[in-house]
Write a structure and sequence with these properties.
alpha+beta, 7-stranded mixed beta sheet, 20 strands, elongated
Length: about 400
């Protein structure tokens, strides 16, 4: 991550990374009471893209993991098919025997793979695709920071050269993924911990995303209320309460100030906080241009149906010079005058750079990588809309995944 990245470019990073929370975390947090989550709604196509980026997975509970006489059984494809009557996530999947599954023909293309029965889907299989393949219906449930993927039913299609996938037992747990302690690299070097609680819906997966202080029990997942609806090209919707924003700002600036380029200078931002002002949002903090070595107060106000920077103000920090001796008072007054000059120059530069700009355009496209159980997953995205309601930011984004690293092992 670029250590000189503007603060406006850090917010989409936090939101985009959360889309993988339900499948990509490791650990087990205990969260502070009153820790309000950001809430995400992820479209089916993006769910499939993210899940596929985490595959192939060697299934530890099936033959081949520890028995050298059996080739490994590998989960190579997985498509989201909605929600069961009891609220579990339904998936259709492909299991292959031997090899890695990388480069194998795609067996479940497109969205219509959820409609036919397994038997009808099996009849479509070409002989060359069916070798060493089983198709299956899976069910995912979430509890106590664990997402468990269970086999509902399966059909073995063909006989591979090296043997045969055995008939699989229903109700067998194929894959367990913890949904806590995703470590996001921060500017100060200390990782930011994020924790996710998924909730399955007919056409989406919703995720409550927490920043990690450790103090209380498992939270309630996101549910239907208070999550922005997907619209247009957006495949991710986000609602982020101000408490979450401020917690993120504290963690981003706790180890060291945040550095942003302004003209030919670099400005260090510290003590950042966001508050609601009428129908808009005000961000306040301290700014220190490296070329001047003075600190001034900065206030940025954003508002509008699609958030836009409406004003930027910089003010010098005043010292009480009245009780000082003559020489000390003169030095104190000179420092105050210097801060005033810095504040005027910085305010003019910030106004010229940011005033009138859409926040989502200032954010630009984001692309970053993070480690997920032995491989690297890349997530990238653009905000399509950013708004502000009562105490909460709302956004619509178009997000996608990039390349991932090596084969993933379900025991990690």
């Amino acid at each position: 991550m670029n250590t000189e990245q503007p603060i406006l470019k850090q917010a989409p990073t936090l939101c985009a990374v959360a889309l993988a929370a339900s499948l990509a975390f490791s650990g087990g947090p205990v969260l502070a009471a009153g820790n309000q989550p950001a809430r995400l709604r992820v479209a089916v196509a993006l769910v499939d893209e993210v899940v596929q980026s985490l595959l192939p997975v060697i299934l530890a509970e099936l033959p081949g993991r520890a028995d050298p006489g059996h080739p490994a059984t590998i989960l190579t494809e997985m498509r989201y098919c909605g929600v069961s009557e009891k609220g579990a996530g339904r998936f259709r999947a492909v299991l292959r025997q031997g090899g890695t599954g990388v480069g194998a023909p795609v067996f479940l293309p497109g969205r219509d793979v959820c409609r036919p029965s397994l038997n009808d889907l099996a009849k479509r299989a070409e002989p060359k695709i069916a070798e060493g393949v089983a198709i299956a219906d899976l069910e995912a449930t979430w509890k106590s920071w664990e997402l468990k993927v269970v086999l509902l039913r399966s059909i073995v299609l063909g006989s591979p050269r090296s043997g045969r996938i055995p008939e699989l037992e229903a109700s067998r747990v194929l894959w367990t993924v913890t949904t806590s302690d995703l470590r996001i690299a921060s500017i100060g070097g200390e990782p930011i911990l994020v924790h996710g609680a998924p909730w399955f819906a007919p056409a989406t997966i919703e995720i409550a995303v927490f920043l990690g202080e450790r103090a209380s029990a498992t939270p309630v997942p996101a549910g239907r209320k208070g999550v922005t609806a997907l619209a247009g090209e957006a495949n991710l919707a986000a609602d982020v309460p101000l408490s979450f924003v401020n917690q993120a700002l504290r963690q981003l600036t706790a180890p060291q100030p945040l550095a942003i380029p302004v003209d030919s200078d670099t400005v260090d931002l510290d003590k950042l906080s966001a508050t609601q002002e009428g129908t808009g949002l005000t961000i306040r903090g301290d700014a220190s241009p490296r070329s001047m070595r003075e600190t001034v107060h900065v206030t940025v106000f954003v508002d509008g149906e699609d958030l836009r920077v409406s004003s930027v103000r910089a003010e010098g920090q005043g010292d009480d010079c009245a009780g000082l001796g003559a020489v000390a008072r003169m030095a104190c007054n000179l420092r105050g005058s210097a801060r005033g000059v810095v504040a005027e120059a910085l305010g003019a530069a910030l106004t010229q750079r940011f005033q009138g700009q859409l926040v989502r355009e200032l954010a630009g496209q984001q692309a970053f990588r993070f480690a997920v159980g032995g491989q690297t997953l890349e997530v990238r995205g653009d905000w399509l809309h950013l708004g502000f309601g009562t105490g909460s930011l709302s956004g619509l984004a178009r997000v996608g995944t990039g390349g991932s690293g090596n084969e993933h092992d379900s025991t990690r």
